[in-house]
Amino acid sequence: MSNTANAKLQIEKVKESRVSSIDFSDLAFGKTFTDHMFYCDYKNGAWQEPKIVPYQPMTIDPSARVFHYGQAVFEGMKAYKDDNGKVFLFRPDQNFKRINKSAARLAIPEFPENYFFEGLKTLVNMDKAWIQPGVGNSLYLRPFVIAIDSAIAAAPSESYRFMIICAPAKAYYKGTVRVLIAEKFSRSASGGVGFAKAAGNYAAQFYPTKLAQDRGYQQVIWTDADTHTYLEEAGTMNVFFRINDTLITAPISDRILDGVTRKSLIQLAADNDIPCEVRPIKVSEIVEASKDGSLKEIFGAGTAAVISPISAFEFQEQVYELPEVNEHSYSSRLKSKMLNIQHNLAEDKNGWRMEI
Ligand SMILES: *Cc1c(COP(=O)(O)O)cnc(C)c1O
Fold first, then answer.
1. Which CATH number fits domain 10-169: 1.10.4160.10, 3.30.420.40, 3.30.470.10, 3.40.50.970?
2. Atom nearest to 304 CA in ligand 1
3. What the protein does (predicted)?
4. Which residue from 93, 303, 334, 335 has its CB within 8 A of the most atoms of ligand 1, so it is best to mutate?
5. Cβ(201)–Cβ(187) below 8 Å
6. Strand pairing partners for 142?
7. Global pTM exceeds 0.85
8. Mind listing the pLDDT tens digit for each residue in 70-86?
9. Is 197's C-beta closer than 6 angstroms to any atom of ligand 1?
């Protein structure tokens, strides 16, 4: 079923681009934004005219429901530039479907498909001077929707703003990640909003993550909320385990986010004859595998870092170290395969790239 609307995209360009004033060698992630932004308001039961305007602060009433009830969803995706200056998105159809799935769970109206793609492509094209070529460099794209009704009654809003903002992102090496396996706190619960990219999911993670950081861990591996015996996600990433030569990742559910990176890695594993099982995985299984030496790797998977290798985990006050990552590790091999596809350096046999 197609979900389209028919207002014309309105465009107001900046008088002068800021791009020449940016030091791309020294970019903190998510603090610098491009010249333009896209937005489209929902009111009177319909999405209004979509617009691209100069990036700027906006005025929202203090009573807007997003501030009180967190009625907000978002996406994270990237645009890449190859050495010939061609610009690509990676599986943007997946992000479009997911933002509407998230929106539905938060009682937010679905956004029209043609507005999403026209807005996204036009915006990225207008600001493509902000994308640096080179593997690891990208333009991070942040579509999001917020409830903007001026009314603090605890009910779904009648007006919303859909926006896309863009931040240049650099390849950066974060070092190794040590993680704490959650035994008390939970990221999501059955029947909840864990599968949605709901803003509040992130706020709820900050405190337990900070406690873990105070103890020398960078992230928390989330377990199932009821029993804390099954492994679900690593921080804000999906998570993979390698036991002997087999990769294992948990099946998606209403507690686990359906990551584009996760599903792409499962496909790449199949394409490269790497055995990969999608099944529930117990904490006790990786503890045993670590003790007998069969646990080879753990890594997080998400758009921001593609793959983030984990060097150690703590569970029940016991620390388990993992073997060092090298170029034969699945994490290194799969990460370079993904990056090469994203940057138009390898054949794209699954049709994941979309040229702008
Ligand atoms: C966004 C997100 C991911 C990763 O999804 P990608 O589409 O691969 O970026 C994984 N887990 C959670 C909780 C997320 O919010």
1. 3.30.470.10
2. 9
3. Acts on leucine, isoleucine and valine.
4. 303
5. yes
6. 165
7. yes
8. 999 999 999 999 999 99
9. yes
